[in-house]
Amino acid sequence: MIPPLWSPLSRKHRWIAHFAAMAAVTVAISAAGWFVVDRFAPPQDVPWKTLDLALPPGLATSGKLRSLEKHPEVCFDKLASMGVEVTRISKPNTNPQCIVPAAMTLDRSLTPYTPTLSMTCPLAAALYVWERHVVLPEAEKRLGSRVAKIETFGAWSCRRVNGAREGRWSEHAHGNAVDVSGFRLEDGRHITIKADFRDKGPEGQFLRAIRTKACGVFRTTLSPDYNRQHADHLHLDMGDWKACH
């Protein structure tokens, strides 16, 4: 005997059919969405597409850069393809908190850095993206001059956050952070974070612009807007925490 339409068994079958139909629609929409994103979105915005250091930063760039820590040889190959010259080094240390995997010195990039920087390869790759796609074009746009040199307080340093005796170890201890202090331009100007970050003219606009855009490249970007400890530099790192100040 065929059960009536209002029987519990019929309701159960209708619910299963409805659920199956909704699941099929969801899968179809997801597949269509994936196809559209894969086909038409800029590759730097798509997490599953290969990182290209020649492309400007996108929504997925920071995550792709950080993933290079699992693939050091890929990282070194990408830097070499951009003409970045490095020397692979070993950073032995009796303190296990200060071991730097896949360590290197940055010998030659698009712009000279002072002093010589020791760091991880993923940080060097992020620094290259920021330098090429943010710092250099912003300098020409806002200051009308090319950058001749990028000044820093260094990268690798076996210390805790803010040089404290106790507490959390800094990303500098892992070679995973760099502190940028200023820029020398080809026209002779010297621009520093300490003297010019608050400036209302083009120098301050330049520094604040490259700070803001650094947030799309590095995991953590800290500036004088964060606290007094960063009054004279931009702290840029590829650590675990996402922050932009």
Describe the structure.
With 245 residues, the chain is α+β, with helices and mostly antiparallel strands. The protein has one domain (45-50, 57-244). The protein has six helices and ten strands. It has helices at 8-40, 61-67, 72-81, 121-143, 193-196, 202-214, and strands at residues 85-88, 103-108, 113-114, 117-120, 147-154, 177-185, 190-192, 220-222, 234-237, 243-244. Strands 3, 5, 6, 7, 8, 9 and 10 form a seven-stranded mixed β-sheet that branches. Strand 6 and strand 7 form a beta hairpin. Helix 2 runs antiparallel to helix 4 and helix 4 packs antiparallel against helix 6. The chain is globular and about 80 Å long. The mean pLDDT is 88.
What's this, in brief?
By secondary structure, this protein is of the alpha+beta class. It has one domain. It is built from six helices and ten strands; from the N terminus they run αααββββαβββααβββ.
